[in-house]
Amino acid sequence: MYIVHSTFDVPAEKAEEVINIYRNRSRLVDGAEGFQDFLLLQNEKRTGEITVQLTFDTKEHYLEWVRSQQFKDIHDMEKKYPDQELAAIIPAVKQYKVVAT
């Protein structure tokens, strides 16, 4: 199993707007080969800290997703988001191989 976290900070007053964007996400990743799960996490103490967690069967499946046209299309849409402050945010990405359950 392979887990990827993309963590970013938004102004606290915009956190709910970002959460709603992800609640209404395209779900294109859901059809990617090896995709298992999507979670959106919000830090309880720092409400502007949001983490997208994706789980794939393997690292190779994740890399296939990242190289896909659908991945590129989603991220191109994000760059065109009307709120340029949010569109300009670059997440910190961390990748994890699950070694025990």
TrEMBL record:
Molecular function terms, GO-annotated: monooxygenase activity
Pfam families: ABM (PF03992)
Domain of life: Bacteria
Enzyme Commission identifier(s): 1.14.-.-
Ranges for domain ABM: 2-90
PROSITE patterns in UniProt: ABM
Enzyme class: oxidoreductase
Keywords of the record: Monooxygenase, Oxidoreductase
Protein name: Antibiotic biosynthesis monooxygenase
Species of origin: Fictibacillus fluitans
Lineage: Bacteria, Bacillati, Bacillota, Bacilli, Bacillales
